[in-house]
């Protein structure tokens, strides 16, 4: 099995590209979606997050806005949160890999692949990228997003240029969707080629 690490900074179009891999029949593990499930109603992380950050959960699970406010600008609190979330996501990822052990390749869609050290556990790295002005326009169009929050997120992420430099493949998302889809197919064709052939 070839394990593909799919990553990219916020607003680069990574979720769209992940769906394109899935449309080609490649099993995709979505780290963000896993976090949503773990923090959703009845999720495995709800009680431990409430214990660590009181008044950040309710009937619908974790109140992401309240939790974000509880850790915003507080490095120690953010580290405490990551120490709860990362091991739970890792367990879900391991279960996904076991369930798809017979697949020729899988995609691990991980926003912080480099920042959290996950790059060392994959065979190939695909970075999704777009020009800074495209990224900024996409992110600031999101509900509830502010310039301050956008810049805070960027500060936690490796720069796009560094990610591209460390990638095996770069997929650009600033053109038509069909161009992006063609790039995904190209990556799969390259990875499916016989080794050393």
Task: Characterise this structure.
This protein has 197 residues and is α/β, with parallel strands linked by helices. The chain has two domains: 1-27 and 103-197, P-loop containing nucleotide triphosphate hydrolases (Rossmann fold, 3-Layer(aba) Sandwich); 38-99, no CATH class. The protein has helices at 14-23, 31-39, 46-52, 64-71, 75-99, 132-140, 147-156, 160-166, 177-192, and strands spanning 2-7, 28-30, 57-58, 61-62, 105-109, 124-129, 169-172. A five-stranded parallel beta sheet has the order 2-5-1-6-7, sandwiched between helices. Helix 2 (31-39) packs across helix 5. The radius of gyration is 17 Å and the shape is globular.
Chain-wise SSE layout:
Blueprint: E1 2-7, H1 14-23, E2 28-30, H2 31-39, H3 46-52, E3 57-58, E4 61-62, H4 64-71, H5 75-99, E5 105-109, E6 124-129, H6 132-140, H7 147-156, H8 160-166, E7 169-172, H9 177-192
Parallel strand pairs: 1-5, 1-6, 2-5, 6-7
Antiparallel strand pairs: 3-4
Helix pairs in contact: 2-5
Give a brief rundown of this model.
The chain is α/β, with parallel strands linked by helices and 197 residues long. The protein folds into two domains: 1-27 and 103-197, 3-Layer(aba) Sandwich (Rossmann fold); 38-99, no CATH class.
Number of strands: 7
Q: CATH architecture of the largest domain, please?
A: 3-Layer(aba) Sandwich
Based on Cα principal axes, name the global outline: globular
SSE series: EHEHHEEHHEEHHHEH
CATH class of the largest domain: Alpha Beta
Structural class: alpha/beta
Instruction: Let me know the largest β-sheet.
Output: 5 strands, parallel
CATH superfamily annotation of the largest domain: P-loop containing nucleotide triphosphate hydrolases
- Domains (count): 2
User: Overall mean pLDDT score?
Assistant: 91
Radius of gyration: 17 Å
Question: What is the fold-level CATH name, i.e. the topology of the largest domain?
Answer: Rossmann fold
Question: How far is it from the N-terminal to the C-terminal residue, by CA?
Answer: 18 Å
- Sheet with most strands: strand arrangement: 2-5-1-6-7
Q: Which stretches are poorly predicted, pLDDT < 50 over at least 5 residues? A: none
Helix content: 40-55%
- Taken as a percent bin, the fraction of beta residues is 5-15%
**Annotation field: number of helices:** 9
């Amino acid at each position: 099995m070839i394990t593909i690490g799919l990553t990219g900074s916020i607003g680069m179009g990574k979720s769209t590209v992940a769906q394109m891999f899935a449309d080609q029949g490649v099993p995709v593990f979505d780290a963000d979606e896993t976090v949503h499930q773990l923090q959703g109603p009845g999720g495995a992380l709800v009680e431990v997050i409430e214990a660590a950050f009181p008044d950040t959960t309710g009937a619908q699970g974790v109140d992401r806005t309240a939790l974000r406010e509880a850790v915003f600008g507080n490095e120690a609190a953010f580290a405490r949160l990551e120490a709860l979330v990362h091991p739970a996501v890792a367990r879900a990822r391991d279960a996904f890999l076991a369930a798809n052990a017979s697949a020729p390749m899988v995609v691990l869609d991980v926003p912080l692949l480099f920042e959290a050290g996950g790059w060392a556990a994959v065979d190939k790295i695909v970075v999704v990228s777009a020009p800074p002005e495209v990224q900024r326009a996409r992110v600031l169009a999101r509900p509830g997003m502010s310039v301050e929050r956008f810049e805070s997120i960027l500060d936690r992420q490796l720069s796009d240029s560094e990610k591209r430099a460390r990638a095996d493949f770069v997929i650009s998302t600033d053109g038509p969707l069909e161009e992006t889809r063609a790039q995904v197919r190209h990556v799969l064709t390259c990875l499916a080629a016989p080794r050393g052939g």
